[in-house]
Amino acid sequence: MTKIYFTDEHEWLKVDGDVATVGITNHAQEQLGDLVFVDLPDIGTTLEQGDDGVVVESVKAASDVYAPASGEVTEVNEALSADASIVNANAEGDGWLYKMKLSDPTQLEELLDIDGYKSLIS
Amino acid sequence: MKTTPFHELHIAAEAKMGEFANFNMPLFYSLGVMKEHLHTREQAGLFDISHMVHVQISGAEASKFISRVCPYDASSQTVGQARYSYFLNETAGIIDDLIVTRLADDRFLIVANAGCAEKDIAHIKNHAAEFNVIVDILPRAFLALQGPKAEDVLAQHFSVSHMAFLDAVEPEDGWLVSRSGYTGEDGFEIAMPPEKAIAFANALLSDERVEWIGLGARDSLRLEAGLPLYGQDLDENTSPHEAGLLWAIPKELREGGGFVGADALAQKIVVGRTRMRIGLVPDGRPVRGGTDLKNTNGETIGTVTSGGFGPSLGGPMALALVEVAAADASIFADVRGKLIPMERTKTPFVPHSYKR
Fold first, then answer.
1. Residue in B65, B197, B53 with CA at minimum distance from that of residue B137
2. pLDDT by residue (tens digit) across B329-346?
3. Average pLDDT score over residue span B290-304
């Protein structure tokens, strides 16, 4: 069974067992504007919660995407290497950034659920 | 934070607003930076540039004053001509870069960067005390209309078809139209009394070829055009020689003249520069301002001063200040420990289309 969490840094995690798919929220991509490049981590990279795992570059600026939880990167969304605008088109679906094997699932308890996130951005 | 006379139009257009030089300015509108950029290169983009400073210098010694604070002979400047120049400090560092327009025999307009307003005005007033001139800071609303359709659009309001690049006219009291801009495109900059601002902008926007363009696309357009931005590519520690801007100083004045900074500049030219501004194309990804540049031995040889993605170029681009001795060898940008190969290239990255 999958469950979706959000962070106050505008990331989402879709958790299935001990694997989480990570991306930025639709609200985040609207704020960033047109993305032109996504600097993805190498597979096998160990990220601590709060590390800058990904950099997304818009026409104007580079922005860090922090790791919403600790774990090891198991897969990255290679499609973004060719077309970063997929994130703009579908940030919470096809525009996912990477998948990670969670090392400390208790960290999820501190994250927001969808209602918590909606009230954050409203 | 200050607002411009066009503020209510930006809000109505649902602009994403942000702070720039203490002004609340539009960063991008609903089109987004990418489409705004491309629209400007294909149609006509409308920019609110009212944050810029307009200083009028008038009086019997106006041209003598300009020739003192700017490194050129203003007495030979044709009335109705604008030119690019800068203020230098006593060590020939750039205080600000500017457009100076001669409006009459005894009247000039200096248009300067918003971020430098305070020090520019102090510099002007400091030197104006020695001359018979009147300094007026003009309250003006200021728009740029840029792109291949700009002439057609503006011709519905003013007679502009006869104007060439850097020609300037005052069609009515309190108005100025010059064929100039900061995008590399043909286009115009139009200053007007603030109370006329909304009606005029709405008249331009009623033409379907015109779209509001924010500061985001203004930056990517100027970078593609290879135009330096004060505060990033230029500062008080950078000389015109290092910045590649000696072209704006007449040859005979480079070895000495009566302008502020002349002696220091002449000496810098004799000694030779150790750093120079170059254009670079990063391999595959944008590299931002402030990134260190290295040679093949891993030694730091310069820094990226402006970097971003060029929507018309279709890839990343950067301006950099590098050691002259390292400029022709391999250059790498150090992006968080990853070395990105940088290919030196001529600027502009995208050709200019000025109407000469």
1. B53
2. 999 999 989 999 999 999
3. 98
Tell me which residue of A45, A43, A53 sits closest to A13, measured CA to CA.
Answer: A53
Beta carbons of B311 and A60 less than 8 Å apart: no
Q: Please list every residue in chain B whose beta carbon sits closer than 8 Å to the beta carbon of residue A33.
A: 16, 28, 32-34, 216
Helix crossing, B215-224 with B33-42: angle to 10°?
60
pLDDT at A92: 97
Residue contact B311–A59, C-beta within 8 A: yes
Residue A1 has pLDDT above 80, yes or no: no
Please state, in angstroms and rounded to a whole number, the distance separating the CA atoms of residues B242 and B257: 19
The two structure tokens encoding residue B338? 């990853």
Q: Mutual orientation of helices B117-128 and B62-69 as an angle, nearest 10°?
A: 120
Decide if the complex's ipTM is over 0.95.
no
Query: How far apart are alpha carbons B336 and B338 in whole angstroms?
Result: 6
What residues of chain B have any CB closer than 8 angstroms to a CB in chain A?
A: 16, 27-28, 32-35, 37, 216-217, 219-220, 285-286, 288, 308-309, 311, 316, 335-336
- Are B12 and B62 members of one domain? no
Question: Could you tell me the pTM of the whole model?
Answer: 0.94
Residue B254 and residue B279 share a domain:
no
For residues B26, B31, B34, B35, the Cα torsion angle rounded to the nearest 10 degrees is -130
- Chain A residues closer than 8 Å to B33 by CB: 33-34, 58-60
Q: What are phi and psi of B249, to 5 degrees?
A: -110, 125
pLDDT, one tens digit per residue, over A8-58 is 999 999 999 999 999 999 999 998 989 999 999 999 999 999 999 999 999
Average pLDDT score over residue span B13-24: 96
Q: Which CATH architecture has domain A2-117?
A: Beta Barrel (2.40)
Residues B316, B191, single domain; the answer is no
Is residue B42, in this structure, part of any structural domain at all? yes
Query: Measured between CB atoms, does A31 come within 8 Å of chain B?
Result: yes
- Asked if residue B33 belongs to a domain, the reply is yes
